[in-house]
Amino acid sequence: MTHKTIRVGGLTRVEGEGALLVRARDGRVTDLQLKIYEPPRFFEALLRGRAFDEPPDITARVCGICPVAYQMSACQALESACGVTVEGALRDLRLLLYYGEWIESHALHVYLLHAPDFLGFPSGVAMAASHRPAVERGLALKKAGNELVAAVGGRAIHPVNVRLGGFHRVPADLTPLAGPLRRALRAALDTVEWVSGFDFPDVEHDYRFLALRHPAEYAILSGDVAVSDGTAFPVHDWPRHVVEEQVRHSTALHARLDGRPGYLTGPLARYALNAPLLSPLALRAAAEAGLGRVCRNPFRSIVVRAVEIVHACEEALRLIDRYVPPDEPAMPVAARPGVGHGASEAPRGTLYHRYRIDEDGLIAEADIVPPTAQNQARIEDDLRALVEPRLGLPVARLTELCERAIRNHDPCISCSAHFLDLSLRHG
Amino acid sequence: MRKLAVWKFASCDGCQLTLLDCEDELLSVAATIDLAYFLEASSARGAGPYDLSLVEGSISTPDDVERIKHVRRVSRHLVTIGACATSGGVQALRNLAGVREFAAVVYARPDHIEALERSTPISAHVPVDFELRGCPIDKRQLLEVIGAFLAGRRPAVPAHSVCVECKARGNPCVLVAHGTPCLGPVTQAGCGALCPAFNRGCFGCFGPMESPNAAALNARLRAAGMTGDELARVYRTFNVTSFGGSSDA
Ligand code: SF4
Ligand code: SF4
Questions:
Q1: What is the SS3 assignment for B224?
Q2: Does one domain contain both B29 and B145?
Q3: Number of folded domains in chain B?
Q4: pLDDT score recorded for residue A250
Q5: Could you tell me if residue B248 is inside a domain?
Q6: Does residue A92 carry a pLDDT above 70?
Q7: Is the Cβ atom of B155 under 6 angstroms away from ligand 1?
Q8: Nearest to A246 among B20, B108, B197 (CB)
Q9: Does residue B63 share a domain with residue B174?
Q10: Which of A17-26, A117-126, A221-230, B40-49 has the highest average model confidence (pLDDT)?
Q11: Residues in the ligand 2 pocket, defined by CB under 6 Å
């Protein structure tokens, strides 16, 4: 029996770090573990004893790439515990802030992390040598997203303006944002066209999708939880359906949905469950890109992300157009003992928070289920399906394919916090 | 061309993302200094030694302790970026409680989790050439630091308080005008007095300024109605190890 171990350093162009271990024998994968061993940061523990209005600022620090998602899920969970629902212009401003995050985060992934895979470059910066206009367009798009987050949230990373009930200060006028966003919308449409011309491996998986669903919006800020098998449940039923378990090989927990592991959340899931609610230009761009009604090819997720950028730009413009500054920057939210649940669509998928507030207005318990913890088991399934029929390929090639397959899902490993190595064992 | 490396320990990635968020400058930075090792941004792993290493994140596992020594050995200059690397970060809240207790809250099998009792700044383990504060760091300050090391001079980063920036920006003082608790008087400048500009008090995300007078501020904050617990919490968030004792003053 031959025994071979190949180590391939850290996984790159993902946020955070992790490792992949594949063991194969006689042409079959016997063991496959995506390891997330970034040091755990213990947010759920350190939130205990903090004041009920602190989690939006604190949980933003779970992830520097999608802090708004953490702030929004935290706000909704705590507001629901306190019996408050934020509506009208304040909700619009939250949506606008969130669209900004979708634009910057998706543009980062599409241009700097994912596209280099398809064009054969180690990085977006290296890609600029021969694709300079495209990279510049990507950076401009990302900047438009960051400027939107900064305009509404005060700062692009870890916005300071978000609070329970709304904001600390609301903008008097949003019209200066319209010009840059119209340019961003054009860049987003060009992005869809650009990425849809890439060469995609012919892979399809029979995914079980999970995403929020809202009656009137392509869900981002709120909604019920929908699953592609046709079931749906309100966010406060989350703990009855989604259970996290610890696996020996990872500091990120693995989630099971209704008893089964391996479901997918994120752009492919949102598109499969909510595509008819996309903005008109986004719908047309999706059709022109040949996406079909459901996309099951994970390599094509880059196209879905680009379509979501179009949607975010178009919707943001609509919100800016109808914006009338609210009289008060926030609705009053008073602490009361109880439990609250909240979920929103982070760029990488559904992000759930639950808090229990005690008699003194302090956090007694916190639970955070980030998208990467939910997708991890499903990413392992993708890898197994990819590796097994290709075990005869040269290891370097196989390794590259695995890295690409992981990157398709834009795993944000800092959510669970981590270092990644890739090792492949043929037994 | 000189070589830049970016390293990550326990953190949210926000500080290294700040470099990628320099959208207008990124390509010209890359033309001036070789982004030799930057796993978040590139699959190319250029070999060391590196002229400048930017280190994000705190030391929180036994493996980190070994890795930071390696980073120091392969780096001519080592600069920490952000509150995690400079003061242990929000994850240093475990230092007040105990890591076993924390692990038991999050994990069914805490014995399978390797984590140090304390989350510590980089400077607790290796010599550091410069510390850039902020949670996250400020983009302009980051570009200043990279430029300064390329030019062989000290970075021009102020050591005064957020209050000075507040005055420069023309913000009314939220503490004086509205009685809103604010750590601006003891916090290092760098953000441009962001929070007061948004009508809220500073919560110290840039960490303590040089020789802060916390005792004077705390008397003022108590007079504004803050309780001892609230005072302790506001100091003990993103820079708990460097602000930690201030609330007892
Ligand atoms: S200092 Fe703050 S922004 Fe920087 S990595 Fe740590 S948590 Fe993120
Ligand atoms: S005012 Fe204080 S808390 Fe706000 S961004 Fe500046 S340093 Fe951070």
A1: coil
A2: yes
A3: 2
A4: 59
A5: no
A6: yes
A7: no
A8: B108
A9: no
A10: A221-230
A11: A 160; B 162, 187, 191, 193-195, 202-206
Q: Look up the domain containing B84 and give its range.
A: 2-151
Mutate to test the pocket of ligand 2, among B86, B140, B205, B236 (most ligand atoms within 8 A of CB): B205
Q: Which of B103, B125, B151 is the last residue of a domain?
A: B151
Q: Is the CB of A64 under 6 A from ligand 1?
A: yes
A290: exposed, middle or buried (Cβ count in 10 Å: 0-12, 13-18, 19+): exposed
* Listed residue (A279, A169, A165, A168) closest to A218, CA to CA: A279
pLDDT of A421 higher than 60: no
Which ligand 1 atom is at minimum distance from the Cα of A61?
Answer: 7
User: Is B20 in the same domain as B119?
Assistant: yes
Residue B51 has pLDDT above 50, yes or no: yes
Look at residue A4 in the predicted model and tell me its pLDDT. Answer: 31
B131 and B181 inside one domain: no
First to last CA, chain A: 6
Residue of A nearest to B35 (CA): A125
Under the banding of pLDDT at 50, 70 and 90, the label for residue B112 is: low
Dist. CA B13 → ligand 1 center (Å): 6
B46 lines ligand 1 (CB under 6 A): no
Q: What mean pLDDT is predicted for residues A348-376?
A: 92
Kindly report the pTM of this predicted structure: 0.93
Among chain A residues, CA nearest to B94: A46
Per-residue pLDDT band for B189 (boundaries 50, 70, 90) equals very high
Residue B58 pairs in a beta bridge with B10
- Among B116, B151, B186, the domain-final residue is B151
Assess whether pLDDT exceeds 80 at residue A179: yes
Q: What is residue B196's predicted lDDT score, i.e. its pLDDT?
A: 96
Check if B92 has its Cβ closer than 6 Å to any atom of ligand 1.
no
Mean pLDDT within A228-235: 96
Mutate to test the pocket of ligand 2, among B135, B194, B243 (most ligand atoms within 8 A of CB): B194
Q: Are B79 and B149 in contact (CB under 8 A)?
A: yes
Give the residue-averaged pLDDT of A87-95.
97
Best mutation target among A101, A125, A135 (most B Cβ atoms within 10 Å) is A125
Asked if B17 and B127 sit in the same domain, the reply is yes
**Which ligand has the minimum distance to the alpha carbon of residue A157?**
1
Check: CB of residue B133 under 8 Å from CB of residue B206: yes
Give the closest residue to A265 by CA, choosing from A246, A242, A288, A287. A242
pLDDT mean over B54-77:
94
Which residue of chain B is at minimal alpha-carbon distance from A109? B41
**Domain co-membership, B118 together with B197:** no
3-state secondary structure at position A199: coil
Tokens of A122: 């180690």
How far is Cα B172 from Cα B166, in angstroms, rounded to an integer? 8
